[in-house]
Description:
heterotrimer; B: mainly alpha; C: mainly alpha; about 0% strand; rod-shaped
Amino acid sequence: MTGLSTGLGRAAWLVFERDVRLAFRRWEQVTHPVVFFVMVASLFPLALSPEPSLLRSIAPGVVWVAALLSSMLALDSLFRADLEDGTLEQLTLSGQPLGWLLLAKTLAHWCLSGVPLVVAAPLVAEALAAPGGSIGVLMTALLLGTGVLSFLGAVGAALTLGSRRGSVLLSLLVLPLAMPVLIFGARATDLAMRGETATGPLLLLAAMLILAVTLSPLAAAAAVRISLE
Amino acid sequence: MATWTWFHKLSSPPHFYRIAGRLIPWFAIPAALLIVGGIYGGLVRAPADYQQGDAFRIVYVHAPAAWLSLMCYTTMAAAAAVGLVWRIKLAHALAAATAPIGASFALLCLATGSLWGRPMWGTWWEWDARLTSQLILFFLYLGYMALRSAFDDLQRADRASAVLAIVGVVNVPIIHFSVYWWNSLHQGSTVLRKGGPAMPPSMLIPLLMCLGGFTLLYAALVCIRVRGEVLVRERNAAWLRELGPV
Amino acid sequence: MDDFLHMGGYARFVWPSYGIALAVLIWNVWSALRLHASALERALRRVAMDQSQTTEPASIHAPARTGEAP
């Protein structure tokens, strides 16, 4: 990258587009988390009972726990390949603000891992006997929530870069921070399923997303620098 | 600039080691007196509560534990930030030393809260905002300590866990204000409110004694722990020789 | 005394609370002292090893050992 002549916008686009392009070559990186999401959600009717009234009552929680776990799984692909082939170091040395580049990377990751979950959500909601009218709110909430999870996860992934016990430790770090997302996301879905308005929790999720997008790249950049020392 | 030179001297490990060592009894003895006095006052001297009966006496261990768990996390995050920004090893040592203390009191807060909640609300646990935030705080402590232990290099451990501590500090105001933001089973603030405390002195004074005593105890504990951390970090320093066979 | 132990019927909540609190306090003190004691012991041992190396008289097994890691 010609650091001096490349503007911020172009640099971000290059990083974003590269991650998306690479993901299309390793398609399983995108599909595995979605399959995991659907499978985990299906475990509950199998383990508990397929009775619609029970499923409807646990549907919000189940969808969100499954989405959360699937996000944890998908975080592995955020930095691993770039760490191994030295691209991450190149990004740090590129002369562009590292936080900005990581923002672009995390956005790409959100598009590749979070958005597919949102697309798969109606399927899962249907399987869990959720009323049709709540699907819109569910998808909106998941879109916002998976965004927050990607950005929080980026900080966790940066902190545990190349660590041996990486993924378990990562979950231990990110899950406590992600609990508010779970709480409000499930609450929004629950309200929608009962036919009530879910604007409150949705706005809180949006606020969390804005906070995460602005602050997490800074923390992630600091963490990447520390991990690469 | 005398205060600045004092501060600068304090951040030198051998100097801190000596001073902290001398301060310990000044923290520990008043702490012991306040805690014993406060507990005695709370268990024996304070009258039973009109609504909650003798169960309210749990407050004398529950409230200090809650206070300490929040204060420790804030201290830990602040020390971590100082260590990260100004690269002061002693600040990192302070953060590392505070974590297990804070975690143990967060656990105590959850346990005593649960034991208090059972007779009062009829439930061992309730997923309301304050309890959930306190649980998240406990998990944040565990995550911090887990991240520390994942690194062999102490410097890396310091810096990585510092980032984590700072990120998690957002949870602290949420816990404190959760009682106001959401309708909660948990009661609101009884001490820090407009119009003065809602408790009669016979109940309030033991509580303040316990709060003060626990805080001083933290100060004593952290002096001991940071001295230990300093010894670990100053592996080859010359000043260690002057310690001699203690 | 019985009334005191009885705690107005809430004894099985109040006393375990104080018991756990006592356990946490004791653990904190013990754990802090143990951390410091073991760190001190290790530091003193290192100092002693360093000193024994630098002040070691010339051995009959020439040449003198140099740069041995502790």
